[in-house]
Design goal:
503 residues, alpha+beta, Beta-Lactamase, 2 domains, four-stranded antiparallel β-sheet, two-stranded antiparallel ribbon, 10% strand, disordered C terminus
């Protein structure tokens, strides 16, 4: 009865608070504006996640006064409960600030890592063993901290990333929390089971207003909170379990958002984009692109989540051999689904990977060539020799043009050092690429003024060049060596000929 009461209390509070949050958001202008990446066409109030969080907090606080097994567990584990409240509160604050004012990806990530670290160090929310269906569990030792932080950050962002359609993130969280409730009952872990079913009630009350067509969004205050709550409760439920596959259960139960997040990372890495760059390649975007309606897409993903939940529950009841077979089938079906939906173009991944390897190889060759030029410059004993060595290096590079113009003043004399290298029939056209680096330095009675130019006949996108500061480094090596020579010998009034041609 306690679990049913907790579910009912959270549901009623959430359902009552959500319309109030909608009116508040409209008055304060806390609305989600449509854009090219989003599927809604009109501003929608957000911060509905505050209703979910408030309902869950109320249900969790209320059970501490109940005289039964759950209430006893609440009072017997004050650090666990306090940690859950503090961590959840900090995450809700992060989400609310992001909803109202907007935050960059790195500050949000840093806050999440900080909260996860606090949960690990102060409240003993830790992953110290990894389940192994093939044998005994793995002891993490020193890796326990980074794995725990990764656990929190991964689940928090998995729910956040899948929050792209009306009711999607809430429905996924509802199914996952119900799954965790059943898993915790089977252990049994009463307090964690209660936290999971209270979360389910809070989400269901909000879904009354969030299912398509939604009248309010949960915002980051909701999606980040749900991710944290699922991460914390699933971790506690798994750690207190004796099953060797326990830690895999929440991963399987959250299979859809986990897969979506993993594929987003793969997609962005292979495309050479930031991990935090938004795109329309998520699983729900792909289903919409295939012609499915908004509601049907959400219902299809609900069905996929239910299948994942059944597999997770089966893992709890299975022996090691059966668990290994289930996991193999699960991964096979997931791979086939990804391929069938075109969520990831494996041929494109291959092409992108080959392109990335080629680009990396070109960049390494460029860096090695520049390093060799720097070594050669340091060995020059005169300005003339330094220039000649640079021309020799340019001949062996892929440069179309290379110009150096320096005016050196030292000990009352002035010397001009100028060299130009250009391949026959090649020049830097408007479609090509050029890097110009000014050289302007004074030290004592020695001055250097001029510039160094690197030119290619093709655009930078085809060259796979390192960043410009690497070429600045070579210009600075030249400057420093010329300074050393000038201090040693003073300038000789010799002007190098222009237009030294290379083959």
């Amino acid at each position: 009865m306690t679990f049913l009461a907790g579910f009912a209390l959270a549901f009623v509070v959430s359902a009552a608070l959500t319309p109030m949050m909608r009116e508040l958001a409209l008055k304060l202008g806390w609305v989600d504006q449509p854009d090219a990446r989003k599927v809604h066409s009109a501003p929608i109030p957000r911060v509905g996640g505050l209703a979910i969080a408030a309902a869950w907090f109320m249900a969790m606080a209320a059970v501490g006064w109940v005289d039964n097994a759950v209430g006893d567990a609440w009072r017997a584990n004050p650090d666990e409960v306090i940690g859950l409240f503090i961590g959840a509160g900090l995450i809700v604050v992060l989400g609310l600030v992001d909803d109202v004012r907007g935050l960059g990806a790195w500050p949000k990530l840093a806050w999440q890592v900080g909260v996860a670290s606090l949960m690990y160090a102060a409240f003993d929310y830790r992953i110290e063993l990894l389940g192994n269906p093939m044998g005994p569990p793995f002891e993490l030792g020193l890796l326990a901290y980074p794995v725990t932080v990764l656990w929190f950050v991964a689940i928090i962002n998995a729910i956040n990333l899948i929050d792209g359609l009306d009711g999607l993130a809430g429905g996924v969280a509802l199914i996952a929390s119900c799954t965790l409730f059943v898993v915790c009952l089977l252990q049994p872990v009463e307090l964690t089971a209660y936290a999971s079913i209270a979360l389910a009630g809070a989400v269901l009350g909000f879904l009354l207003y969030n299912f398509n067509p939604a009248s309010i969004f949960m915002g980051d205050s909701g999606s980040l909170f749900l991710g944290f709550a699922l991460a914390a409760t699933s971790l506690q439920g798994s750690v207190k379990s004796r099953a060797v596959v326990a830690i895999l259960v929440p991963v399987i139960a959250l299979g859809v958002p986990f897969m979506d997040t993993l594929l987003a990372v793969v997609r962005r890495v292979l495309a050479g984009r930031s991990l935090f760059a938004a795109d329309k390649g998520h699983v729900h975007h792909r289903l919409l692109a295939l012609g499915f309606s908004h509601r049907r897409t959400v219902l299809m993903l609900y069905s996929a989540c239910l299948l994942c939940a059944l597999v997770a529950l089966a893992l709890v009841l299975a022996n090691s051999r059966q668990a290994a077979v289930l996991l193999t089938l699960y991964l096979l079906v997931a791979a086939l689904a990804v391929r069938a939906l075109g969520i990831v173009d494996f041929a494109h991944i291959g092409r992108t990977a080959r392109h990335g390897l080629l680009r990396r190889r070109h960049m390494v060759n460029h860096l090695a060539s520049l390093q060799a030029a720097g070594v050669a410059l340091r060995g020059a004993t005169t300005v003339d020799e330094a220039m000649e060595r640079l021309v020799g290096w340019a001949r062996g590079s892929d440069l179309s043009r290379f110009d150096v113009r320096l005016v050196i003043g030292a000990r009352g004399g002035v010397r001009q050092a100028e060299v130009q290298f250009a391949r026959h029939g090649a020049d830097v056209s408007p479609a090509g690429h050029e890097i110009e680096i000014p050289v302007d330095w004074a030290l004592g009675d020695v001055t250097i003024r001029g510039d160094v130019r690197f030119g290619w006949a093709v655009p930078a996108s085809e060259l796979h060049l390192p960043e410009a500061p690497v070429y600045e480094w070579l210009a600075m090596v030249l400057r420093d060596r010329v300074l050393e020579i000038a201090f040693e010998t003073g300038p000789r009034m010799v002007v190098l000929p222009r237009g030294q041609e290379g083959a």
